[in-house]
Each structure stands twice: as C-alpha cells, then as structure tokens.
C-alpha cells in the first residue's frame, strides 16, 4: 500500500497511439506537475496499418504480431510523456482491435466492439477502485470520429463511471476529448493552399465527423511547454504514424500551439472556474478540492 498524489487522472483510450495524438500534451503536463496519470488502453491495435516497410510481416494478415510490437511502442510513448502507470484493459490481449466500422474484423470473437459492456466496465471499475481518480478522460459517444473501438471505449468508460457512482468512488469529473469548431476551421483555412493539405476535398467543417461548437467546450489545457514530449511520444508509434505525416507538417507550421493545446467537453461533474468568452477551464481539476482529507492510502499502481 502507498499514498498516491492528491491529483489523479485516468484516461481511457482504444488503441496504442490514441493517447499520444489526442491527449499526449495533457498527460505530460499533469505527469510533470506531480499528478498520478493512469492510462488504460483497451486493445493492442492489432489491425493498424504498418508504415515501416521492414515490419510489414507483422500485419494481421501475415504473422499477426503487430499488437505485441505495439506494446513496446506504447511503453516508449509513455516514457516520453512521463507516464509510468499504463495498463491494458483486462490485461494485454484481452480485447482485440476491431478494425474500422463495417469490416469483418468487427466480428472477431475477441473484438472489443463485441465485448460484454458490463464485463469490460467491471474491469475498468477495478482500476477506479485502485487508483481513485478524481478526473477521467475518454471519447464522446461517436468515439470522436466513429471508430468502433473508440465508441466502445466511451461506452465502457461511462458504464464504469455509473458502477463507480453506485459504490461512491466515481471520478468527480468526466471529460470527452474535443476539437473546437473555431480551431478546426482555422486549420482548414491555413492549409487551403498547402500541398500537404489534410483537409483536401473537404469544403466545410460540417463535413467532418468531429468539431465541437466553441460554447460547448469546457476546458482548454495549455501544455505548450510539453509539445516536444507529445511529438516524441507520437514518433514512438512509428508503425502507425509515418515520419512524413501531415501531423508533423502541421506541427512544423504551428509548432507548440498545435502540439501543446488540447480541448475537452465536460460530460459529468461541475464545471470549475474558467476564463475567456466561454469560461473555458485551464485545469481539468478546476473546482475540485484535491488537497484535503482525500489522501487515503490506495494500492500502488504500476505497469500492467
């Protein structure tokens, strides 16, 4: 038994690399500030594309060893972010990457998309019991962009929150990852004339499966001092993110602003004090008392 830091953050992601792309700077920010950051990844990402030619044989249709390889990539990414508590839901390989929506891989017996909701949520509840996070982060009901595993991660996280509420141990706040419509439109405009335009062929932000109206955003985490850590974590996922990815091209143009600022909507709990025209929080723990009698011993957490 040990006493964990007063501030404890739990993130629930679908595949290795999702944590770095979507919340890497936030994770690095809180880890550097002394908070306990727990990452739960729901699958090994077995169905991912492979952008390293010499590793093509790891693919699901070949040796089907990509998932095992990505365990190492995730470990390297977490090290870059300063996160030491990273686990796979139910243990590595309990649930398999379901692939994109509508593919035959959705029906694999171990596909996360097919997982029994209460069973999977119960496994996440065990983590909540151990770590007692005050804040949990996951995806919105559409999984941010519609991937079945992202949608299922949302369902599992929210069901685990319900179960934790019944036990009186639920995180006080639950956030969903988000992209403000204004930021999305600014990015589209900035890349209009670029040869590497990731929005090519898209005429309006309304055509994209993500983009949240600015008034619905609850928190803007400025972790620009951690943008290098986020980029290093992304580069650790070399099989999934090519070295010449448009993500790095955007980073080259916008630097720390692109890599270091992340946004969230608030799905459960009370919004804390914020600033600006919409009162965006600058701290996911805003409004929470995290330095009082909350310092009860909880089980030590480590890599699982």
Task: Explain what the structure shows.
This protein has 304 residues and is α/β, with parallel strands linked by helices. The chain has one domain: LmbE-like (Rossmann fold, 3-Layer(aba) Sandwich), CATH 3.40.50.10320. The chain is built from 8 helices and 7 strands, in the order βαβαβαβαβαβαααβ. It has helices at 18-32, 66-81, 117-131, 148-167, 181-190, 227-236, 246-254, 256-260, and strands at residues 8-13, 36-41, 85-88, 135-138, 173-178, 219-222, 261-268. α2 links the parallel β2 (36-41) and β3. α1 (18-32) packs antiparallel against α6 (227-236), α2 (66-81) packs antiparallel against α6 (227-236) and α3 (117-131) crosses α4 (148-167). The longest helix is centred in the middle third of the chain and has 20 residues, at 148-167. The two termini are 17 Å apart. Mean pLDDT is 89; it is low at 291-304.
């Amino acid at each position: 038994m040990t006493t964990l830091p007063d501030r404890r953050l739990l993130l629930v992601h679908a595949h290795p690399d999702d944590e770095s792309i979507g919340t890497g700077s936030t994770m690095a920010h809180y880890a550097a500030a002394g908070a306990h950051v727990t990452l739960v990844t729901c699958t090994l990402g077995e169905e991912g594309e492979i952008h390293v030619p010499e590793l093509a044989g790891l693919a699901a249709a070949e040796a089907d060893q990509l998932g095992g390889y990505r365990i190492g990539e995730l470990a390297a990414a977490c090290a870059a972010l300063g996160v030491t508590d990273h686990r796979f839901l139910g243990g590595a390989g309990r649930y398999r990457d379901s692939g994109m929506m509508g593919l035959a891989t959705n029906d694999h017996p171990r596909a996360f998309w097919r997982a029994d909701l209460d069973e999977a949520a119960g496994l996440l509840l065990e983590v909540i019991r151990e770590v007692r996070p005050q804040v949990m982060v996951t995806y919105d009901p559409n999984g941010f962009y519609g991937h079945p595993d992202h949608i299922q991660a949302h369902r599992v996280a929210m069901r685990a929150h319900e179960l934790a509420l019944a036990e009186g141990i639920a995180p006080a706040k639950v956030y969903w990852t988000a992209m403000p419509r204004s930021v999305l439109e600014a990015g589209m405009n900035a890349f209009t004339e670029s040869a590497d335009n990731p929005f090519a062929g898209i005429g309006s932000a309304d055509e994209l499966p993500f983009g949240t109206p600015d008034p619905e955003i609850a928190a803007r985490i400025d972790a620009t001092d951690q943008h290098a850590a986020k980029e290093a974590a992304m580069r650790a996922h070399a099989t999934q993110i090519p070295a010449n990815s448009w993500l790095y091209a955007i980073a080259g143009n916008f630097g720390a602003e692109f890599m270091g600022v992340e946004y969230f909507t608030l799905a459960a709990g009370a919004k804390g004090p914020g600033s600006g025209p919409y009162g965006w929080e600058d701290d996911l723990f805003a409004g929470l008392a995290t330095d009082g009698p909350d310092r009860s011993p909880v089980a030590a957490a480590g890599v699982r």
